[in-house]
Amino acid sequence: MNLLLHYLLVTVLVFGSPASKALARDEGEAAVTASSSKNKRTVRFLAVGDLPPFRQVVENGVRRELPPPAGSIPPSKISLSLADDGESELGSSSLQLGRVSAPVVFEEGAEDLVIRDAAAGGTPWVKVKPPESGDFLVVLFRDPEAKSWSRAKASVVPEGDQPGKATVLNVAPGPLAIVYGEDKIALVPGKPLVRNLAGGKPVSFQIGMPVAGGKLKRVSSMSLEQEAGERTFVVIGRADGIQPRQPLKVTVIRSAAES
Fold first, then answer.
1. Is 10 helix (H, G, I), strand (E, B) or coil?
2. For 157, how many CA atoms within 13 A lie in the half-sphere containing its CB?
């Protein structure tokens, strides 16, 4: 039973007795202690995709950049709230394509969360289900059917401190195949893959996607490398720009991690 509810019931049922007052006081103090001792967790956000083309006009001999078309970039400012309580804001953060946001800190729990477009008056944007515990990263990408950031999808990745590790996430519409060093691995959408990546030791990394006839077409080949004490996060998604050269876009994020 919820401690606060228990406290209220005890107070109502046996109000007036000195012993009951002491019991109610103890229960209330226990509820406050339990509430204040909840673990804190953090969530960060990463929006992936292509930037819209740069546009400008010349007015009176002065060049002026035009704003991006509607729906071509994610909201620049977002807020976070519980799914069943839109009035209570847990925190807010800025959002920029290809960059991990500052963390939002809130109390431990597994309630569904709603990301809101703060620039649009807190309009609900994306709903996410966090892991039961621990810090996590929310990867955001355009809905392939909508082709607009007004409708986005999200993939949640637990984010512990993992120095010497590389995490690979597929947010493309379908399964992919990768070659990580010597290992050939099927990569299904939304399921993170964690592999060792020692500091100062590059690992070859290739990405293939299925084509007609049951074959694979290699669409990207690179090396992954990091320093000791770092971790690497790789997101593979649909290239959503205008006439992209390749069907997939790869975003690589390196960051320091505590041992």
1. helix
2. 28
Q: What is the DSSP letter of 173?
A: S
**Cα distance between residue 19 and residue 193, in whole Å:** 57
**142 and 72 in a common domain:** yes
Helix (H) or strand (E) holding 22: helix 18-36
What's the rounded Cα separation, in Å, for the pair 158 and 227? 22
d(CA 153, CA 65): 29
149 and 97 within one domain:
yes
- Could you report the per-residue pLDDT of 176-189, keeping only the tens digit for each? 999 999 999 999 99
Q: Among 235, 179, 230, which Cα is nearest to 204's?
A: 179
Please state, in angstroms and as integers, the Cα–Cα distance from residue 78 to each residue in 102, 114, 130, 132, 148, following that order: 11, 10, 17, 23, 17
Domain of 132: which CATH number? 2.60.40
Please, are residues 165 and 231 in contact by the beta-carbon 8 Å criterion?
A: yes
| Total domains in the fold of the chain | 3
What mean pLDDT is predicted for residues 130-157?
A: 92
Non-local (6+) Cβ contacts of 83 within 8 A are 111, 112, 113, 114, 127
d(CA 126, CA 172): 18
Structural tokens at position 145? 């059917």
DSSP letter at 101 equals: P
pTM score of the predicted model: 0.80
